[in-house]
Amino acid sequence: MRFCVFLSLLFLNINLEVFANGIGNRYFLEKQRSLLEILHHVQEPLLNDQWRSLGEQLVTDKEQYVFYNKHMTEFYKAFNLGKLLHRNAYYNPLFADHYQQTLGLYHFFYNTRDWYTLWQNICWARVHINPGIFVQALTQVLFKREDYQALIMPKIYELWPESYHDDITVSKARKFNYANWIRYENTGDIEEIHPQKMEPLNLEGDLRSSLEWFQAMADVSILRMKQPKKRKQLYYLLEDIGWQSYWYNLNIGIAFTEENSIELQEWWYFQLSQLLARYKLERYGQKLTYKTLAPEEDIKRQNHRFEEESPKTSRIIFKRLEKLEERVADAITFRSFQLNNGSLINLDVDDNWLIGLGEIFPYDWTQLTIEQDIQPELLLDIRTTLRSENFYYYAERVLQAYRWYRQVFQPSDQKIFIPSDFRIDDMQISPLITYDQQVDVDLSNILHAKHFYLAGQFVWPFTLQQQQFRFQHKDFTYNLQISSNKTQSTIFRTFLTTSERGRIQREPFYQLDSFLTVIYPGLNRISRESNDFRGLIGDHISFTELHQFVKLAEREEYDFPLNISTPNCGFPRRLMLPRGGRGNPLKMRLLIVATVYDFKARQGNELYCDFSKGISRWDELPLAYPFDRFLDDDIQAVEISGDHVFWKDVQIMHEDF
Ligand SMILES: *[C@@H]1O[C@H](CO)[C@@H](O)[C@H](O)[C@H]1NC(C)=O
Ligand SMILES: *[C@@H]1O[C@H](CO)[C@@H](O)[C@H](O)[C@H]1NC(C)=O
Ligand SMILES: *[C@@H]1O[C@H](CO)[C@@H](O)[C@H](O)[C@H]1NC(C)=O
């Protein structure tokens, strides 16, 4: 059997395990519906009487928990003393106190023995606890408890549209009066649209063209609010809801995870380097400086609830960065490091450098809590961090320090991974075309809650969608032609970079694709579709549709597929290419690097923000290989020159449709 086939079978099995038989039964559906109803308008008081009364008391009987730990004791004590964060106060898990409260509630969820206890606690928290704490703790539990992992959370930007849309949109949606709108028929810039018109049409699983979709949406009026204009410059990337929520989910998934922290740390730094490289490619495409980033001057962007970043925050971060850089410089100078527990280790001995790495470089935001209360700021809110341009400047400094440390201490035996009797002869690629795509984004959670209760019953009579422009590209394919004199299993990594041939170190390399295949003696042709690149996800159904599908399935008119939504920790596929040029194409290069397969591939479940099974990897090379270290600029580094690599000039066009 070919290894790739074998591996994909292996991967398939693991996915099936998560989605046993793939269809939600009625117990699942009941839980799923309850969950959606409780999360509906989560920022407002709960209107559902049944759950309000169920939520009067937190379950405090210790028998109902697998563990009853000190986080729970402290949380409950604080609750009784009235010391928990007020419902309407601004919540930020980076504040030490808010974080402790989240941790307490998380344990009250996570440690429950059964669904009934968990559900009562969920209802209680929905009624009594700050909605930020509630959503955070609940998301964590659904990511981490294997028995509830199949339950679907609406996407964060649908739960909290306020944080992702401009003030005008939010206030329009908030003031929207359905009864008046019907009476005066299509006034203003909100119009009713036919279901077939909802964009994008091609969701994963082709859900929006199915017969069941029309059935599910039959009783729902779809209203659309127009977004006035396209976003300028980099904002179409920075303000993209998929871009932002990817980072949110990934960090929420990592928080409170204890498994193999060294591996998780490496993975996190790899994701960070990918984001930074992707951001820099966008700057390059826009002809903005990208080689080294500078902190942004205090630019005030209008129409958003958050400030960019206060001088006080900048000071705190600069201090922390300097301390980090100092520790790395000292470690390199003295070849030793003092651990937090006081003992001094020699970094040249055994795997000590990994212990130092683990202690010097934080990756879990729960390690970065701050004491002071600060006003809402983009940078410090984990939902919106990626919207802050300074983030990329800070990220670059942290990554520099991280690479230096690895460069100095990581043992280097990577040359043995270079394949022999092997040559990449050619590469062909279909046109790379980007465009702006109009899509609808669900704003229903901003609408007044009264629209959703009829005589005390929860109903979903209409949905409000905002039409937005977002970034998209056409599918593409590339082909490789390879000669070999022997049969060998090989890993390929494909990077996108600028067309600057100068110093490799300062150019961003963004990994687009990686795969494993077997190369046979003679000429080999390999074809890769952009839709098959790993770790990327397409579009999912909205909060409204999710709810309607659950209702349809409860009426036994639909087999509810457990994979109906997209995995939360996947990166949006449509964002993998930077915006092309109009008229003049954007010139870039691809780099393909082949390495010998060491039969150490592993499959984790990180796409679903679940790190309990470790991280997927092809081999034991660093995840960021060969850019995990600073490659030599003067002589062509052996990792990226020779027959096992291939450079290809490419062009990206931007088209209007
Ligand atoms: C769910 O899985 C099925 C079977 O593998 C697949 O055909 C379908 O497209 C998937 N749906 C989504 C939304 O990804
Ligand atoms: C400190 O931690 C290191 C690494 O975990 C361990 O080997 C060492 O024994 C600890 N030293 C003390 C004094 O606890
Ligand atoms: C295969 O072997 C032949 C004969 O030794 C040599 O000319 C050719 O370059 C080799 N091909 C590769 C891809 O190494």
Automatic annotation (TrEMBL):
Residue ranges of domain Hemocyanin C-terminal in the record: 419-654
Gene Ontology BP, a term: energy homeostasis
A single Gene Ontology CC term: extracellular space
Location of the Hemocyanin N-terminal domain: 28-149
InterPro entries: Di-copper_centre_dom_sf, Hemocyanin/hexamerin, Hemocyanin/hexamerin_mid_dom, Hemocyanin_C, Hemocyanin_C_sf, Hemocyanin_N, Hemocyanin_N_sf, Ig_E-set
Boundaries of every Hemocyanin middle domain copy: 156-289
GO molecular function terms listed in the Swiss-Prot or TrEMBL record: nutrient reservoir activity
Keywords of the record: Signal, Storage protein
Annotated signal sequence range: 1-20
Keyword Signal: yes
UniProt cross-references to PANTHER family, sorted A to Z: FAT-BODY PROTEIN 1-RELATED, LARVAL STORAGE PROTEIN/PHENOLOXIDASE
Protein name stated in the entry: Larval serum protein 1 alpha chain
